[in-house]
Design a protein that fits this description.
By secondary structure, this protein is α+β, with helices and mostly antiparallel strands. It is built from nine helices and nine strands.
Length: 269
């Protein structure tokens, strides 16, 4: 009772994701462990939080099934009440925030023109906004695996750097980090998409890179002064892809991170 097959879980959870995010096929999830970054979000539910238990069911879709533990059943109503899927009700505040102290506050500098792949007026606009009252860095609440994984660590690091910030759900097209002007809470400057070297290769393989880039380009193209003034896209790639070339397969693809992923040459192109 209460068991849900891996296949059904992927279908139901996938229906709650934004258009730019999706699960890989069940066959890929089962055959290539760790290949689906969306499904990887289930891991902390079963390991760190112990809200979910995975059971082997060879004749079920995906060969396994999931059920809520007693802790999971106790916590689930509060999670559903707080949010549905990845949406955020208007009256729900940030999971984490630090707005800076009244003295000695140092707002984060605007993104440099060299880093921003956008129109040349981006840096000037960002600098003007900073002078008028500064920025708050808005961090997507799923960044770093969410609050159950590394989001708290990211928030503490920003606070140590005296960078005013808050975490909330950013819609598709706004990346992992955005800059909100304090004076009128309008998003401006650039959006930042952060990826590790392996996630970069994974996203090129499963199509997320293209979908996310198209969504961010649509955001830039639809700039409205009363909602946002996002004019550029910045990619932050962490790690050296050369250190993650997969050599333990017989096909010789030398994919970054795992067999079948794009090669180092394709990533650098």
């Amino acid at each position: 009772a209460g068991l849900v097959s891996l296949g059904d879980l992927v279908e139901r959870a996938g229906a709650l994701l934004e258009p730019s995010r999706r699960f890989m096929s069940v066959a890929t999830i089962v055959g290539e462990s760790g290949s689906c970054t969306a499904f990887a979000q289930v891991t902390p539910l079963a390991s760190a939080l112990k809200w979910v238990k995975r059971r082997t069911r060879k004749h079920w879709r995906g060969g396994s099934a999931f059920e809520l533990t007693a802790t999971g059943r106790r916590e689930a109503p509060a999670v559903v009440a707080a949010r549905r899927g990845t949406g955020r009700p208007p009256d729900r505040g940030p999971l984490r925030e630090w707005r800076g102290s009244s003295s000695g506050e140092r707002p984060p500098p605007p993104p440099s023109r060299a880093a921003a792949a956008g129109p040349p007026e981006t840096a000037e606009a960002a600098a003007s906004s900073s002078a008028a009252g500064g920025f708050v860095i808005v961090v997507d609440e799923r960044e770093g695996g969410g609050d159950a994984c590394h989001l708290g660590e990211i928030s503490r690091r920003l606070e140590r750097e005296r960078a005013p910030h808050e975490t909330r759900s950013l819609r598709a097209g706004l990346g992992d980090y955005a800059f909100e002007r304090r004076s009128d809470r309008v998003l401006c400057g650039c959006v930042v998409e952060r990826k590790t070297a392996v996630d970069l290769a994974d996203s090129l393989r499963d199509g997320r890179w293209t979908r996310q880039l198209e969504a961010m380009r649509a955001t830039v193209a639809s700039t409205r002064s009363d909602v946002h003034r996002v004019s550029s896209i910045v990619y932050l790639i962490e790690g050296d892809p050369a250190r993650h070339v997969h050599t333990a397969c017989g096909c010789g693809c030398r994919g970054v991170g795992r067999c079948g992923n794009p090669s180092l040459e394709r990533l650098r192109a």
